[in-house]
From TrEMBL:
<feature type="binding site">
    <location>
        <position position="141"/>
    </location>
    <ligand>
        <name>Ni(2+)</name>
    </ligand>
</feature>
<keyword id="KW-0479">Metal-binding</keyword>
<dbReference type="InterPro" id="IPR011051">
    <property type="entry name" value="RmlC_Cupin_sf"/>
</dbReference>
<keyword id="KW-0028">Amino-acid biosynthesis</keyword>
<feature type="binding site">
    <location>
        <position position="103"/>
    </location>
    <ligand>
        <name>Fe(2+)</name>
    </ligand>
</feature>
<protein>
    <recommendedName>
        <fullName>Acireductone dioxygenase</fullName>
        <ecNumber>1.13.11.54</ecNumber>
        <ecNumber>1.13.11.53</ecNumber>
    </recommendedName>
</protein>
<comment type="subunit">
    <text>Monomer.</text>
</comment>
<dbReference type="InterPro" id="IPR014710">
    <property type="entry name" value="RmlC-like_jellyroll"/>
</dbReference>
<dbReference type="GO" id="GO:0010309">
    <property type="term" value="F:acireductone dioxygenase [iron(II)-requiring] activity"/>
</dbReference>
<feature type="binding site">
    <location>
        <position position="141"/>
    </location>
    <ligand>
        <name>Fe(2+)</name>
    </ligand>
</feature>
<dbReference type="InterPro" id="IPR023956">
    <property type="entry name" value="ARD_bac"/>
</dbReference>
<comment type="function">
    <text>Catalyzes 2 different reactions between oxygene and the acireductone 1,2-dihydroxy-3-keto-5-methylthiopentene (DHK-MTPene) depending upon the metal bound in the active site. Fe-containing acireductone dioxygenase (Fe-ARD) produces formate and 2-keto-4-methylthiobutyrate (KMTB), the alpha-ketoacid precursor of methionine in the methionine recycle pathway. Ni-containing acireductone dioxygenase (Ni-ARD) produces methylthiopropionate, carbon monoxide and formate, and does not lie on the methionine recycle pathway.</text>
</comment>
<keyword id="KW-0560">Oxidoreductase</keyword>
<feature type="site" description="May play a role in transmitting local conformational changes">
    <location>
        <position position="102"/>
    </location>
</feature>
<feature type="binding site">
    <location>
        <position position="103"/>
    </location>
    <ligand>
        <name>Ni(2+)</name>
    </ligand>
</feature>
<feature type="binding site">
    <location>
        <position position="97"/>
    </location>
    <ligand>
        <name>Ni(2+)</name>
    </ligand>
</feature>
<dbReference type="InterPro" id="IPR004313">
    <property type="entry name" value="ARD"/>
</dbReference>
Length: 187
């Protein structure tokens, strides 16, 4: 279940709002132009399952979202716990950036935290299995998968070349609490 915390972008020490109430999370993210939905995630995905198996298990909802939002493709990113390159992969997404297209993710397993920098606020949304998040194009944000990540997510793209980031150069992500686990702990 998702957990939303909202901070002033100048004070990462005090959350102005913190809630796991699905209606409140959905409403606050909608104010920032962000689509948040809960999808059923009843499919147990075996550890050895490849990307094709994950996409096949969720073929129905994937097709619906692609049609509704104009996405041309979907892929799967998996981070099993204990990866030796976890710190390098984590660091790749910790800098504030934007995309020229919507960034949509559906969490099949595990968790991670998106930080959205919108109108003087930082929205920290910890997503878990069943959470769909679609961040509008050109929204400043970063993603923290945690120090020992474990997640599987389906990513949706309108571009044929997939994930392409434009980094802002702002070090705001360095000032905000990092994501530490699936429980949403921060440090």
């Amino acid at each position: 279940m998702a957990r939303l915390s909202v901070y002033s972008d100048t004070d990462p020490t005090v959350a102005e709002l913190s809630s796991a109430d699905p209606a409140l999370v959905t409403a606050h993210l909608a104010l920032a132009g962000v689509l948040f939905e809960r999808w059923p995630a009843p499919q147990a995905i075996p550890d050895a399952a490849d990307a094709h198996a994950v996409l096949e298990a969720y073929a129905g909802p994937v097709a619906v979202l692609k049609e509704a939002r104009g996405f041309q493709s979907a892929d799967v990113v998996r981070m099993p716990r204990g990866q030796p390159d976890a710190a390098v992969r984590r660091a790749a997404f910790l800098a504030e950036h934007t995309h020229d297209e919507d960034e949509a993710r559906f969490f099949v397993q595990g968790s991670g935290a998106f930080y959205l920098h919108v109108d003087g606020k930082v929205f920290r949304i910890v997503c878990g299995a069943g959470d769909l998040l679609s961040i509008p194009a050109r929204t400043k944000h970063w993603f923290d998968m945690g120090p020992d990540p474990e997640f599987t997510a389906i990513r949706f793209f309108t571009r044929p070349d997939g994930w392409v980031a434009s980094f802002t150069g702002d070090v705001i992500a360095d000032r905000f609490p990092k994501f530490e686990s699936e429980t949403g702990n921060v440090s």
